[in-house]
Structures are given as C-alpha cells and as structure tokens.
Amino acid sequence: MRFDDAGLVSCAGLVPVLRLAEDIGLGGLIEQRVDLGIPVGANTDAKALSVVAGMVAGADSIEDLDVIRHGGMRRLFTGLRAPSTCGSWLRGFTHGHVRQLTSAASEALIRLAGRVPSLLAGVEQLAFIDIDSKIKETYGHGKQGSGFAYNGIRGLNHLIATLSSPVCAPVILTARLRGGNADSRRGAASMITEAIGLARRSGATGTLVVRADSAFCTGPIITAIRRTGASFSVTAQKNAAVMATINAIGDDDWGQVAYRHPIPDPETGEWITHAEIAETVHTAFTNATTNPGQITTARLIVRRTPRFTTTEQGELFRTWNYHAVFTDTGFDLHTADEYHRKHAIIEQVFADLNDAALAHFPSGRFAANQAWLTLACLTHNLLRATGSLTSMFHAKARTATLRRHLITIPARITRTARRITLRLPANWPWQHHYQALFTATHQRL
C-alpha cells in the first residue's frame, strides 16, 4: 500500500459544482460584500470557496477541509487554502460580517435560480416558506452562546427558513444562530420578513404561504406575515380560546378523511390512517396588552383522531386528540390540511445539514459558527442546483445521495497537448448523470 500517486483525486464531482459557482460569480460576490478589515480577511473569495468546496465534499469540521488538498487537486483548482487559514478567517468574523456574508448568500440564491430555472420550478404560482428551529448539541463550556434548551440539551439554537413549491425540493432562504436557551420565536418575525422579500426576488411572485408549528403562532409573527401580503398556515396553540372554538363545532360538521399514506399523530406518535376533519372561524391574539393591534380572525382547520383509553368496563365514551391549524389561505378544507402537513419537509433540510457541515458547530467563537452556518446553507443550495441540472431524480434527492452519486467520484488526472483529462472509473453506476451535469455546467451560456 502506497499513498504516492499525485495524479489522483477522490472527489472529481467538485469540478462541475465549482464551475457552477464560477458561473454565478460566487467568489467575486463574496469578495465584494464581505470585508473583515483585518489581515486575516485578505483573499476572502478563495477562503470562502475553499470552505464551500470542503462542505460539498462532506467536511463537517475545519480540519476536514483538508479533503480538498490531496492528490492532484491543485492541478484542477487554484487558490485552495489550508484548514488553519480558513479557521483563522472564520474566527475573524463579527456579527456585522456575518450579515455581509448572508447578503452574498442571498444574492447567490437569486443567481442560482436564474442560472438553473428548474431549481425553483413552480414557485411563480404557489410557494411555501417553512420556518423552524433546532438545537445542535455542544459539549463542554468552551463554545460561546451555548446553553440549556427547553429539552434539557446544552447546545446552540439555529433557526432556518426554506422555500419550496409542490414540485421542487426546498432551498434555504436564510438562517440565524442563537444561544442555546433562546426561545424559538426570538427574532422570527424579522427573519420571516427578510425571507419573504428574498423569496419574491427569487421568483416566488404568486401565492406565498408561510408554514410553521405552534411555537410561531404569535401575534407579532402573524402580523409580520400579513403585512408582506403573504398567507400563513400555522399550528394553533392549545389554549383555552382555541379549545372553546373547537368545542363549539357541531357533531354534524365533522367529515371523514382517509390518508393514502399513514401520518404520525403530533401528540402520541401513533400512525393515523383515518381521521375526522372540520373547519370553523377563530379570532386570536385578543389580549390588547400582550398583542396590541394584532387581533386576527381566520380559519381554524381541526383534525381529530380517537384517543384509545379503555378500562376494565370498556370504552365508556369517545374521547379525541385534536390538531388545529390557524390559516388564512383560500385552499379547500382537505387541500389546506394536506399542504400544512407537508411543513414536515423542513425536517429533510435539517437532516441534510446534519449529515454534512452541521454535524456540529466547529468553533468556540459564536460569530465563526454563524459564518459556518451561512456557508453550510449556501452549500446546500449549490448542491440543490447541482441536482436540478443533473436529472429529475437528483433534483429532489438527499444531498448525501448527491455526494455519493456525483461528488465523491475517484479520478486520475492526465494531460495531453496541454489539455487536462479526467479518467473516471469504468462502469460507474451514475456515469450518464455525471456526464449530463458536466455538460450542463461547461456549456457556453
């Protein structure tokens, strides 16, 4: 066994991906908008692209960025930076610099949507913005901002907003990192306003619906959504006012619904195949002290499933589990329920991030982790665009699948008549898909 071949690379798929990044001018965009103002901030474009390239290849820590510096990688790419250099660059960030990087990532998404029209197919007619937060566990006391969350886990809290349509996979509009003990709703209203503006600039000019769980069913958030002209579909909190509205629904107003694919009950986790569904009107946020000027009247869509609680005497009377959705959309009852349940698509995005760059936050500095989160979201969008250029299957495939099929392909570099040729493995199962991607990214625009 010898590690001595300087003409081999293990991730030939970086060639078309970074060519796509070059097509949208990603390096120049970051260089133009991000200025750390310190010596370590020089050559920002090369350092940012080195981090993105490492994340595309599966790096989940600063040390892992060394994956782009093996074998013949320097013969394929210029400006590759060492992990220590990228780490120093990340630690030079402040909150203001992260906002600069966020601005560059937002513009990059707009350019990707223009370069790859199928990336956001259908958003011009109907689009969904999903927002949710997650806790990423940390260990020890060295990470700035880490704290104990509501679930008892010590970590950092990240909030993301995604954009999708009924026919396209979600891309990430924006993301924020908060302290581990942050409330899910903190900063959500302003973030949703920012996300809606970016969605509009990315082509979501038709009906736009913001979906969220009950943590985001608050007066300021709903008011912020309606102020932008978007609609909302938010899981209602089970407070006394909501339960009073549900209890007022007549027995004859409930209709049967059967689900083609079983769904989990939000409370018990049991799989549901049949339920009853009804619709009524509800007025929320009526407390003028806590929600001044935020009274909202809209539809309340309620799904109920039987609660199986039997005793030795059998079931004395039927009891129910209720799941209510507060919404102002104009969809019919069953469509509104179906679309809201698809809010769970944001969990796929969290899973994709956890499988790669966000396996953990790599730095002890809060702002460095903020920058890492922003670059991870940018990488996710770049991979989504890569899949959309490849095939209909890869347009919706998990990013881990994209890496396995298209990125981590071994290759030998040869040079003939000053022309570099990549010699790829014979009988590669996804050869035709890689060729389609390579052609799409190297054709003249």
Series of H and E elements: EHHHHHHEEEEHEHEHEEEEHHHHHEEH
Structural class: alpha+beta
Task: Work out the radius of gyration.
Answer: 24 Å
Fraction in beta strands: 15-25%
Number of strand elements: 13
Terminal Cα span: 44 Å
Could you report the average pLDDT, rounded to the nearest whole number?
92
Helix count equals: 15
What share of the residues lie within helices? 25-40%
Largest sheet: 10 strands, mixed
Descriptive report:
The protein contains 15 helices and 13 strands. With 445 residues, the chain is an alpha+beta fold. Strand 12 and strand 13 (419-423) form a beta hairpin. The longest helix is centred in the C-terminal third of the chain and has 25 residues, at 366-390. It starts with 7 loop residues before the first strand and ends with a helix.
Pick out its properties:
445 residues, alpha+beta, 10-stranded mixed β-sheet, 3-stranded antiparallel β-sheet, 15 helices, 37% helix, 24% strand, globular
What's the gist of this structure?
This protein has helices at about 15-25, 25-35, 45-55, 75, 85-90, 95-115, 190-200, 220-225, 240-245, 335-340, 345-355, 365-390, 390-395, 400-405, 430-440; strands spanning about 10, 125-135, 145-150, 155-165, 170-180, 205-210, 230-235, 255-265, 270-285, 295-305, 320-325, 410-415, 420-425.
Q: What is the topological layout?
A:
Blueprint: E1 8-9, H1 14-23, H2 26-33, H3 44-56, H4 73-76, H5 83-91, H6 95-115, E2 126-137, E3 147-148, E4 154-165, E5 168-178, H7 188-201, E6 207-212, H8 219-227, E7 231-235, H9 240-247, E8 255-264, E9 271-284, E10 296-307, E11 319-327, H10 333-341, H11 345-354, H12 366-390, H13 392-396, H14 399-407, E12 411-416, E13 419-423, H15 431-442
Parallel strand pairs: 2-6, 6-7
Antiparallel strand pairs: 1-12, 2-4, 3-4, 4-5, 7-11, 8-9, 9-10, 10-11, 12-13
